[in-house]
Target: Sugar ABC transporter substrate-binding protein
Amino acid sequence: MRSMGTIRTRRAARTAAALLAGALTLSLSACGSDDDKGDNDPTGTKEAGSTVTLPKLNGESLEVAAVWSGAEQANFKKVLEEFEKRTGATVTFVPAQDPIINFLGSKIAGGAPPDIAMLPQPGAIKQAVEKKWAKPLGSEAQAELAENYSQGWQDIGKVEGKPYGVYYKAANKSLIWYNAKVFENAGATEPKSWDELLTTAQTVYDSGVTPFSVGGAEGWTLTDWFENIYLSQAGPEKYDQLAQHEIKWTDPSVKDALTTLAQVWGKKDYVAGGAAGALQTDFPASVTQTFTGGDQPKAGMVYEGDFAQVNITQAKAKIGTDAKVFPFPTVGDSAPVVSGGDAAVILKDSKAAQALATFLASPDAATVQAKLGGYLSPNKNVAESAYPNAVQQKMAKALIAAGDDFRFDMSDQAPQAFGGTPGKGEWKHLQDFLKNPKDIAGTQQKLEADAAAAYGG
Model:
């Protein structure tokens, strides 16, 4: 969150980078489920093997809003079903649109806000508090947070020291996935540095396959590219300063990062479909087109977080065999470690809403979704064995071991008008930069103008 001391603390990213870099070999394991029931207690239930006591909520109805779709939505609904089973409540998932703050505003204006919203930006949590929409977490949810989360993950859900958000979902946004057959045919190897990435890209290109797939239709994927380069090249202190708008987007460090980014985006035929094609490609398609078409897919590599596994699976590719992954390469002194997440925020304070927030802060809820894949939890008490394959198990272990040594997605820390609105602010200007990566100075000026307006000067 923009005012959070934890976010602004100058934490070293090297430890977490080294840990996350090890999360790249695969094997499969499974974790059994516990379906024992204990719902005879009229005041609360705690199932056998459970870590959390929940109240009886027979006849209660709840709505949870999130921008999730596809497999991500379906998997989260299974978590809600578990809550229903344990409490007797009925929970309805409400599909939301980006930006979710605008969606919630229309719901609240109509007198029908959801009970809980899953907010993907710390800036959005702050806005919800400032608008007096968000309700503080109760003592039970706070107790679960204290028991299960590092201080850093607790703090980014706070506004002015008061807890409002449960970070139910986390993401490692410093990964590049690749088509193993394409690399094998080309004789390409996994790069560790930016220069090696450019060499690998040329090797793939020379083999007859376009190196990169970019989901430019969704501006957030482009901000993630920039953030990884900027964090590694400029360093964590500059990253924190730019995230808080303590330095301007016209700073030379931004020029350096955009210049580096243009080495991929501005290279002829390095992006599938060119800039025009990338700007019509959404994130799911950017992943699936990398792993369909046999050994002649539309691209050999795609950058994005651990959650891309869901889309890889939808492409009928096998992780560890058809699809492999390496950490985002080092541009400066150390490899970047950029994280993101989604927080549950209560909008209608009630016993049922507080109970659901408490459940989402427990290992029980996260374990349900962890087993389904394509998901990481910052909850330190979720067993590694709950994750369905070794890559996710190691990523989860690294995420927890990193503690507070991470940097939260920069655009998610920004006011939503700048960092989280389709067709505006950072999303729009990086889409324009993808179209014209020679216009570095103009892009900086536009970014700074919108950032100054959004941050208030």
